[in-house]
């Protein structure tokens, strides 16, 4: 792939010295690998997971079990988008660097929230259709005076940390394919590491290291084979020819659809073993029968992989879900720690992960050897792990055309929400959930250049007549919890049950606290040893992101970015409040004795009526449902019930008029807003069938509410 360098390296030559030689040279955001190692997570928060080990455990103790009740708002900063917010802020030299949706970057005074600069990569909103899980971004890396951001359209960019001016920009993907970047880059020894996403739509995954100064590519490690099993002339060639190619057949949709295996979140630097350990995502398509009918393990899908940090050369891998069939990514938080597992309790350096598949794994960080694993919640797809850590699959879990309900579903027993680890308690804190899914083979499967290509049928168990009350009943069966998990015994020490499934990232502190936000906007502090809730605050918006903490001039701050959206918020028809549009995201920062406030958003209510009359026969409605489920649901919501992040099609005036509807869905008149034309994938007849389905959903909802209110009188 050609390397596109925009603007080149803008570093100006040093001007002739005008100050006395002994005057200190002021360096801005001068973060080095050694500084990240030395600082850990303490006064500053220098890298995505707090420290290179990504434990998200701060040594700060000013906010502690005794003082936490005095926490109040220090400042808030309004992000300029209502889409999902997942970013962990980086704090360096008193400056906070944080991102929001559409890969916007902000530099704020970390004491006051004052904006120092904002950067907009000016993304073409049409790329939003490639985002499986909203146009989110999980944060930046800061290194030697530069801020690095992965842009949703596949760019990696370097900004001047002081001014926000762009130093360089490289396109890291083939932009003709549905790649996205949502993850935070990591910076190590002059290199910036970035992966990508897109395995729901059909791409081939990899991790790349770029030169932090120039943006030049240094190495690339592919996670699935070249479509012809030929060399890529990359560092991964050796292990594919020796080992990984043989775990794939020669035919199947992987050859044309990319195979998946995207590295979309977890990338960890192990400074002890001088290696990069990263998590690899699901197969593309999900359904192995379509992806690779030969039935192989399909390395390195759903694996934890370690490569040499300098060269990218393969070291080891541990595959959590061989032959992935269920979207069981192993991209979730990887945490490095020394656990007393050796003879007579000597510390052993391990990597820990709670991936989507529902098992908690402990592997030797040096060798990748499986040490232990156990289910951290109910799983029905496997009955356990064998001695090598390989799952023992349950009968029927590899679904056919007859759908089967399985736990976990594709949202996972744990998703991207960062896990934390407290080394003195010896506990990992997992944002866990129970969200089952009916999986069925999609008999209509064919590669589609827009929309999802999983080979699994989302419409399998959803009758067209389903009503919003059915969705609410289905939601009530979903569960979410914070689990304090002991990786030595592979048992929970305590568990907090949440009112909803999807729950936020976690921060652990030496003050004996665990912080976590929730779907409903409540931000909690729990006792790290017992799980007792010690404090909570209503953030007035969804709280998904990993919180952070830092200290300036002796004051400890606690910070979290808020905002509704992300995959669950957008797709699950789960509104923060179904009657109002979603709110703009915010950075909310607390300190002891803070007296600020978060104002309750004051939005007009959504007018939940339509003038359209229901139309179409049963065949048309069912066709509309199938096409809605395949093309519309992941953005506009299950059962056509929107979260409020993207328009609720039921109440859109466009839905009342066949011509207006066609101009949007077929002709793409709203492409600039991200609603691209679906003319390549849907006939005009299909498009009108979707409208019939949406109007029926609107009418059913209005009838249901009318019935409920007449019953109340
Ligand atoms: Ca996935």
Account of the protein in words:
Mean pLDDT is 89; it is low at 1-21. The chain has ten helices and 39 strands. It has 713 residues and is an alpha+beta fold. It has a five-stranded mixed beta sheet with strand order 1-33-34-35-36, with no helix packed on it. A four-stranded antiparallel beta sheet has the order 2-39-38-37, with no helix packed on it. α7 (618-631) crosses α10 and α9 (658-665) packs across α10. It is 13% helix and 29% strand. Calcium ion binds at residues 199-200, 281-282, 327, 329.
Entry keywords:
single chain, 713 residues, alpha+beta, five-stranded mixed β-sheet, four-stranded antiparallel β-sheet, 10 helices, 39 strands, 13% helix, 29% strand, disordered N terminus, binds calcium ion
Main sheet record? 5 strands, mixed
- Counting DSSP E segments of at least 2 residues, the number of strands comes to 39
Instruction: Give, in spatial order, the strands making up the sheet with the most strands.
Output: 1-33-34-35-36
Mass-distribution shape: globular
Helical percentage: 10-25%
Count of helical stretches: 10
Percent of residues in β-strands? 25-35%
Specify the structural class: alpha+beta
Straight-line N-to-C gap: 67 Å
Rg (C-alpha, Å): 25 Å
Associated small molecules: calcium ion
Short structural summary:
With 713 residues, the chain is an alpha+beta fold. Helix content is 13%, strand content 29%. The longest helix has 29 residues.
Topology (elements, then pairings):
Layout: H1 33-39, E1 57-58, E2 71-78, E3 90-92, E4 95-100, E5 104-109, E6 115-119, E7 141-143, E8 146-150, E9 155-160, E10 166-171, E11 186-188, E12 191-194, E13 206-211, E14 217-222, H2 237-244, H3 254-257, E15 259-260, E16 267-270, E17 275-279, E18 283-284, H4 288-291, E19 303-308, E20 314-319, E21 334-340, E22 347-353, E23 359-364, E24 370-375, E25 382-385, E26 391-393, E27 404-406, E28 420-422, E29 427-434, E30 437-439, H5 468-476, E31 479-486, E32 491-498, E33 503-509, E34 513-518, E35 522-527, E36 533-538, E37 548-552, E38 555-562, H6 566-571, E39 586-592, H7 618-631, H8 633-636, H9 658-665, H10 684-712
Parallel strand pairs: 1-33
Antiparallel strand pairs: 2-39, 3-4, 4-5, 5-6, 7-8, 8-9, 9-10, 11-12, 12-13, 13-14, 15-18, 16-17, 17-19, 19-20, 21-22, 22-23, 23-24, 25-26, 27-30, 28-29, 29-31, 31-32, 33-34, 34-35, 35-36, 37-38, 38-39
Helix pairs in contact: 7-10, 9-10
Bound molecules: calcium ion.
């Amino acid at each position: 792939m050609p390397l596109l360098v925009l603007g080149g390296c803008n570093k100006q030559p040093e001007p002739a010295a005008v100050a006395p030689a002994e005057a200190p040279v002021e360096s801005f955001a001068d973060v080095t690998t050694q500084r990240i190692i030395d600082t850990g997570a303490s006064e500053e928060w220098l890298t995505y997971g707090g420290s290179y080990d990504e434990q998200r455990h701060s040594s700060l103790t000013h906010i502690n079990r005794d003082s936490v009740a005095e926490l109040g708002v220090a400042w808030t900063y309004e992000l300029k988008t209502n889409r999902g917010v997942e970013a962990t802020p980086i704090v360096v030299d008193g400056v906070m660097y944080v991102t929001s949706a559409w890969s916007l970057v902000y530099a704020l005074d970390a004491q006051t929230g004052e904006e120092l600069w904002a950067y907009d990569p000016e993304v073409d909103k049409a790329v939003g259709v490639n985002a499986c899980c909203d146009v989110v971004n999980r944060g930046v890396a800061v290194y030697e005076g530069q801020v690095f951001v992965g842009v949703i359209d596949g760019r990696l960019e370097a900004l001047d940390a002081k001014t926000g001016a762009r130093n360089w920009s490289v396109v890291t993907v083939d932009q003709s394919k549905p790649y996205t970047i949502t993850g935070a880059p990591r910076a190590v020894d002059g290199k910036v590491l970035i992966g990508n996403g897109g395995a729901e739509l059909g791409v081939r995954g990899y991790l790349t290291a770029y030169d932090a100064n120039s943006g030049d590519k240094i190495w690339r490690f592919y996670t699935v084979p070249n479509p012809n099993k030929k060399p890529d002339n990359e560092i991964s060639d050796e292990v594919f020819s020796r080992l990984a190619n043989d775990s794939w057949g020669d035919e199947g949709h992987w050859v044309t659809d990319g195979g998946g295996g995207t590295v979309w979140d977890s990338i960890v630097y192990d400074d002890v073993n001088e290696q990069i350990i990263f998590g690899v995502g699901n197969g593309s398509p999900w359904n192995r029968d379509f992806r690779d009918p030969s039935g192989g393990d399909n390395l390195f899908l759903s694996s934890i992989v370690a490569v040499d940090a300098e060269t990218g050369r393969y070291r080891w891998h541990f595959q959590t879900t061989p032959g992935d069939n269920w979207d069981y990514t192993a991209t979730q938080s990887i945490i490095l720690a020394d656990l007393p597992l050796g003879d007579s309790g000597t510390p052993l350096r391990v990597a820990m992960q709670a991936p989507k598949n529902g098992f908690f794994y402990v592997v030797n960080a040096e060798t990748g050897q499986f040490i232990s694993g156990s289910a951290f919640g109910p799983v029905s797809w496997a009955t356990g792990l064998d001695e090598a850590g390989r799952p023992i699959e349950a009968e029927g879990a590899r679904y056919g055309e007859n759908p089967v309900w399985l736990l976990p579903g594709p949202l996972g027993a744990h998703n991207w929400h960062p896990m934390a680890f407290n080394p003195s308690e010896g506990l990992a804190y997992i944002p866990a959930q129970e969200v089952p899914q009916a999986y069925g083979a999609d008999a209509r499967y064919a590669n589609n250049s827009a929309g999802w290509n999983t080979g699994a049928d989302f419409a399998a168990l959803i009758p067209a007549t389903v009503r919003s009350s059915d969705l609410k009943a289905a939601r009530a069966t979903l569960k979410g919890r914070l689990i304090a998990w002991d990786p030595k015994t592979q048992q929970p020490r305590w568990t907090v049950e949440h009112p909803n499934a999807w729950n936020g990232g976690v921060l652990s502190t030496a003050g004996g606290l665990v912080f976590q936000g929730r779907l409903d906007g409540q931000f909690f502090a729990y006792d790290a040893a017992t799980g007792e809730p010690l404090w909570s605050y209503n953030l007035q918006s969804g709280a998904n992101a990993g919180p952070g903490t830092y200290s300036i001039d002796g004051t400890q701050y606690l910070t979290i970015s808020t905002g509704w959206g992300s995959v669950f918020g957008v797709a699950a028809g789960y509104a923060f409040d179904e009657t109002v549009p979603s709110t703009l995201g915010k950075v909310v920062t607390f300190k002891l004795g803070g007296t600020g406030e978060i104002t309750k958003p004051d939005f007009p209510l959504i007018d939940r009526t339509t003038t359209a009359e229901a139309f179409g026969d049963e065949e048309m409605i069912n066709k509309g449902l199938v096409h809605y489920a395949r093309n519309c649901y992941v953005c506009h919501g299950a059962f056509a019930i929107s979260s409020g992040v993207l328009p609720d099609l039921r109440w859109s005036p466009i839905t009342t008029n066949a011509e207006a509807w066609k101009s949007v869905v077929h002709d793409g008149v709203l492409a600039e807003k991200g609603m691209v034309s679906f003319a390549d994938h849907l006939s005009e007849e299909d498009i009108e069938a979707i409208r019939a389905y949406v109007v029926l959903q609107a009418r059913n909802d209005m009838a249901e509410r009318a019935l409920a209110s007449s019953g109340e009188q």
